[in-house]
Amino acid sequence: MAEPYVALQSVMMPSDTNPYGTIFGGVILSNLDMAGAIAAAREVRLAGGEPNLSYVTVALNRVEFKQPVFVGDVVRYETTVTKWGRTSITLQVNVISDRLGEQIRVTEAEIVYVGINKERQPVPLLPTKTANS
Description:
This protein is 17% helix and 43% strand. It is an alpha+beta fold.
């Protein structure tokens, strides 16, 4: 299995909090989706696929909030490809909070993206092999 890719990392700010003083789950979900899309584009390019596709989220199969996130936590989004489809790519995204040097897995999700062209139509992510290649 490939090493996880850190697609996004950010520090949590007071503006990200909910009424309970912890980071709002929607902030984490937004960053999860952004990290996954960044990683999907990267993985397709690395595999020799089309570099100019856009990616749309088609499924959040599972999101599990394990621990709260606090203001000042540095949160990183580590991605790993779990499945390739013809027009889709599935990623596991693990959210790790660095809290004063302690690494805490706070959230995880499985997200499916589909590559689309300028006409917003799904397209194959990787080149098809011909009999001569």
